[in-house]
Every structure is written in structure tokens, then in C-alpha cells.
């Protein structure tokens, strides 16, 4: 009886292991390729929401959004063309406040170790970004390119690294896709704005966020 039980246990173990190996990987994104986004995905994420038409018969009241838009325009105009390192901590926070409700997308762009060089596996995402920003739907807007790191390392080190990486993305877009440098506002946040604070060292925190300011009047034509 005991040997028969052992034999049955061995058979069940083989069945369980075989079933586990046949299941699809739930974390297939870890292969590095599926994290790359397409041009269409970026365009959809950054496209301004369609404005609702005015209802006939309703009177048009004061334009309550004019003041915030004027303030946003003034801020963006003041930082356009500025170097990333020249932005003060106050200006960085003002930009963060302005962009929080704008169309945006987080791109998991990796870089060479301790470097601002874009990794080969992330190049397709950066190229898709370049094509998207020069598409008819998005061309002419001003975009904020914000670099973020995880929580490893000191604040000064991460701040510098995030700025250099944001600059690296901007430089590539300007050189390869002829996007006007003044239409790309770069800012670095280091580890101050973790996407997943509960896991400060998670890869999701190492990202580049692109935001459409939706204001073509601030962009060069």
C-alpha cells in the first residue's frame, strides 16, 4: 500500500509540474519587447479630448478657463528654450501642477547603466514617440518631457540623472525628427515623484513622461 501511495504521489507531481509549465507567462512584459509602445498608442494618449459642441439656445457665459490658460501659457513661455538644469525647484513644481490634468503617457525607456544613453531595446519606443509627435494630430503643440528615476541613490545624483536622460530624449527627437527644440520642455524630477511609492525600487518608477500642453499658440509653426 505504501509503495502504491508513493507511486500515485509521483504521478500527481508530474501532472502538476507539466500543467504549470504549459501555462502562459503572466509577466510576459518582462521580455523587454512588449514594453515598447506604438506610434498609434502614443497619439491616442496625447491627443486632446474632443471639445463638446455648444448647445443651441444656451447663452455663452464668461470664459472661466481663460485665466488658467493664460497662466499656463505664461509659464510654458517662460521655460521654453531653457536648459533643463536652469529650472528652479519652484518652476519644476509649477510645471508638475500644470501638466497633471493634461494628456500624457509614461514610457518605460531604459538607459545604459549609470548613463543617459538610450538602450537599444528602448529605441523602438523613442522612435515611435518621434513619429507620433510629428504626426498631423500632434504636430505643432508644446510637449513636456519629464525624466524620473527610482529611489536608489541620493537625491542630487538622481536629480542630475533624470535631467540628463530627459535631455537625451529631447536631443534624439530634435536630431532625428527635426522637432523644434523650443517645442520640447525638458524637466527632471529625480526620485521625487515615484509612480509606485509602495515599491520605490520598481522599474515602473524609471520612466520618461511626455505631456501634451494642448496649446499650439505656444509652439513654433
TrEMBL record:
| Signal sequence annotation | 1-28
One matching Pfam family: OmpA
Question: Where, per UniProt, does this protein localize?
Answer: Cell outer membrane
Q: Where's it mainly located?
A: membrane
Q: Which PROSITE patterns match?
A: OMPA_1, OMPA_2
Keywords, ordered alphabetically:
Cell outer membrane, Membrane, Signal
Q: Where is the OmpA-like domain?
A: 98-216
Protein name as it appears in the record: OmpA family protein
Q: What is the originating organism of this protein?
A: Bradyrhizobium diversitatis
